From TrEMBL, chains A, B:
Alphabetized Gene3D superfamilies for the sequence: Winged helix-like DNA-binding domain superfamily/Winged helix DNA-binding domain
Record-given protein name: DNA-binding transcriptional ArsR family regulator
GO molecular function, a single term: DNA-binding transcription factor activity
UniProt domain HTH arsR-type: residue ranges: 17-95
Classification lineage: Bacteria, Bacillati, Actinomycetota, Actinomycetes, Jiangellales
Signal sequence annotation: none
Keywords: DNA-binding
SUPFAM superfamilies on file: Winged helix' DNA-binding domain
Keyword DNA-binding: yes
Amino acid sequence: MSRTPPHPDVSQIDLQSVLEAVVDPVRRSIVTQLDAAGHDIKCGDFDLPVSKSTATHHFTVLREAGLIRQYYVGVARLNALRRADLDRALPGLLDAITG
Amino acid sequence: MSRTPPHPDVSQIDLQSVLEAVVDPVRRSIVTQLDAAGHDIKCGDFDLPVSKSTATHHFTVLREAGLIRQYYVGVARLNALRRADLDRALPGLLDAITG
């Protein structure tokens, strides 16, 4: 059994789902922190004003909308910003949100 | 008494309010129709799948977020896309949404 959760293909990334994901300030903060860091970040290493279980929900929404890619390294779940995919699916949107 | 409803100044346009406005598909359709038309449009002349009163609410949300400017010509309320203000406040966002 794969431990990598499902992700939409770049062709499945749509504006409505992405807007629904980033309209939430906490989720937008996750995206902004990934963009600013320039590298992948463990779930527990984000600076977020919510509980761990709430944060997990937010990561899931971002993953299902195609904004982040999640994968495991040992027991740690890491998060990568899907910048190239987003720039291809929705040109300019990520820059407008993180700018 | 002025018949022009209140509008935020360009300096008051913020990402959160704009995202909350455009996350709604009907409101995004209003913005897209204004962008495609290239001219101001009367409230009654949009192609929208909602009642007149619901549409009025959507126009108000868009106006209060700074996406559209509303003004009267006689008894008709017209809507203008605030493209220049939006491009200044949130560069690239409008293009990403209407693209």
